[in-house]
């Protein structure tokens, strides 16, 4: 009603001729209406609602947002996991969904300004520009890599491109620039549409650039499934991540997606050249003296840079996780496209695994015809009992990004044959030339390096312990082998040396961390504690977790001690440890290590509390995580999707009902009917007892006879007939 009054009042003020009755009904000097009549007339006038209501504008962004973007994405995941093998032919309907564009805008803004923007905070002008971008993509008017003309700009981009000078315009057009904001939006929308399609189809053997899978998952799978293999092929296919021919990428994409608009968008992103700054081939510029630089104050909408501890941890990235694909203008689509192309290799290897498998009944593991039975002791999968000469031939495969690891149980000749076939496949499918050096065959006894962890085998002998000092080997023949996954200390030293934390190989000597020279002791200790916490988590599944973390703690503690010695002029690390304690938790400003005023200042909140360094002793480091890893493991989000689809299937309900009936259990509906039946029987028995008692002639035997009638056999079908006759249903309780 209020909306009708507002709209019609606006129309009256704009055009007074639309009033449906004469103007004499208003109060004036020429009429004799009372104030009460005038008020009633005005009420009737402004409560009048026109018969012809305004038709909602189809191009209004507010009318296009019918659902939440997250619910639309969830529905896409459910549909693709319900039918993972179908060919997708119509994705334009999802490109039209304005909710996905709004969700993409929120995600990209979070990366741009460093904070999440709720939908209610998006301005109307931004929604109009976002709608214009969507229409341009649908009408094939969108171009990748625009530099001056945009459909929508970043909220923090305040540049007026129309008033720029020719020199600045030339610099924008000829030098390397960050990806435009509108390109990131289109990439995000395409990613949200394509990711659920291919995540339902990807092999379970790939673990990089996928949600719910990481390097820790790879290490746990290796510990779980690679225990019985003798020969290993470690391959580096990272050349594929540098880029493939456009035709190969599009053909891999069109195996499952046949939508022309999406294919054309991705093809144009791959084909459009990326403008980069020309390399300076002239003389090297002279080094200038470093001047004092003021601390730069960040703007309100500018994201904070990565903290020092996070930069340091990123420096520890293993070789297998260093390279991130970036193809043309695809942006965040590049890792997904790389996985789509490499999925053909995963499928080919899965076929080879089935062909290679030849079970042997005399083998203690993998002796089933299908090869899917549990191996050995499931609670201790890294232990493999000794088998006879006739062993099962088996192979397994895992891929992390562009690096692969193949384990083979069998003779070395089989590994050489597989390597030859793999070289031919990569040459035919990806047009990359591999050789025997890029795919080395190594025995488990030499140690296999993967993700900065070493895979090796230890022989387990039977021992007889009869003294307090040790045991004696009673048999030279081992009872089995144990797969060991240990952190590589050699690689750890290499990474610390690259970050300038130490020098030397045989006796590594910590170097002062001068990056933190101007920071306070409390801030420096807090940064290094965060770094040590991440290192503890990184080596979580290593057998030598305590040793590796203790070495990292020693390097960090020695580096900080040298830093504090130079900063506070204490000359040596020994004096720093004497004043600041082993974990550097005491303030170092006082020479004698005693600051009676520090505790009082700390209580008043005038100084920062100094947290000591963590893991300064071996006993403080947590043990290795040996939690059993299931053979058919899947990420939590995939488990939830599969379970939801299973429960949503009508066949599941029928199976549950039949299972309940076979086990002799009672369904909820039958249980309610039984309660109704017992209630009615009890009422009848109580009425009979009351009648007998009032008659005055009853005995205890009569009571037992009447009560025994309540324990007759219950029949749900007969009860339903009685309820139908009496008009009494269980649903009315």
Automatic annotation (TrEMBL):
It comes from the Eukaryota. One of its GO terms (cellular component) is mitochondrion. InterPro entries: DNA/RNA_pol_sf, Domain_X, GrpII_Intron_Splice-Mob/Def. Residues 485-589 form the Domain X domain. One of its GO terms (biological process) is mitochondrial mRNA processing. Residues 701-733 are annotated as: Disordered. It holds the Pfam family Intron_maturas2. This is Intron maturase isoform 4. It comes from Theobroma cacao.
